[in-house]
Amino acid sequence: MPRSRSEDAGAGPVGAPAGPHLRVLIADDQDLFRAGFGMILDAQDDIEVVGEVGDGAAAVRAARELRPCVVLMDIRMPELDGVEATARICAETRAKVLVLTMFDLDEYVYDALRAGASGFLLKDIRRDQLVESVRIVAAGEALLAPTVTRRLIGALVGNGHAVPRLAARLGDLTGRETEILAMIARGLSNSEIGAELYLSANTVKTHVGNLLSKLGLRDRAQAVVFAYESGLVVAGGG
């Protein structure tokens, strides 16, 4: 059973935040990591750790029951691995998933991004970075450091992950949307894209929403993966 600190798990829609807190579920098979991350996050005024579980199957059940805003998901766990657990949580709830890994060039992380994860963190992350990462993802942004993401996707696209047929789907986008997709893959925020293209942040946001809808993508993290897999952005390119 997940350790729950919330008494109101039956109220509200799946994935909805309760009150002012960012509700976080921690899924890791190592007690030390669960306790450490939980202590750091619970110390924040705006974050509440609503549950801690030790395997992927329990993570899926807890995500349904506890309605977290963000799930910290260890990538390698018993019962159900982090990739499949991520896919199920993203399909069944509105929770955002942040994958935890020991290695930045972890093929399972790449698969989790494809499954819907909004980003990934190394387990040796500093406490201030952990807190800020949870807040960023809860706000709807992807958490993908451009250099790390390029190394990860670049290494794996080179190992047979490229999907040439995706290139045809780029034809569904306007020229502006294609341009913005490439800039998302470079790690630019909406405001940075707007500054380069002389567009307002709201206009960029509209373009981003349109291209995600046309391509059937969940968020910016999946857009980055798509940009590489379709060949729009070349691994190791500028």
Structure description:
The protein is of the alpha/beta class and 238 residues long. It contains 10 helices and 6 strands, in the order ββαβαβαβαβαααααα. A 6-stranded mixed sheet has the order 1-3-2-4-5-6, sandwiched between helices. Helix 3 links the parallel strand 4 and strand 5. Helix 2 packs parallel to helix 3, helix 3 runs parallel beside helix 4 and helix 7 crosses helix 9. The longest helix is centred in the middle third of the chain and has 16 residues. The protein is globular. The relative contact order is 0.11. About 6% of the residues have low confidence.
Entry keywords:
globular, 6-stranded mixed beta sheet, 238 residues, 10 helices, alpha/beta
Q: Roughly what fraction of the amino acids lie in strands?
A: 5-15%
Give the strand order of the largest sheet, numbering strands 1, 2, ... along the chain: 1-3-2-4-5-6
Compressed to H and E, one letter per element, the order equals EEHEHEHEHEHHHHHH
Radius of gyration: 18 Å
Structural class of the secondary elements?
alpha/beta
Q: How much helix is in the residues?
A: 40-55%
Q: Could you tell me the mean pLDDT?
A: 84
Uncertain runs are 5-19
Q: How many individual helices?
A: 10
Strand elements, count: 6
What's the story with the biggest beta sheet?
6 strands, mixed
Shape: globular
Distance between the termini: 47 Å
What oligomeric state is this?
single chain
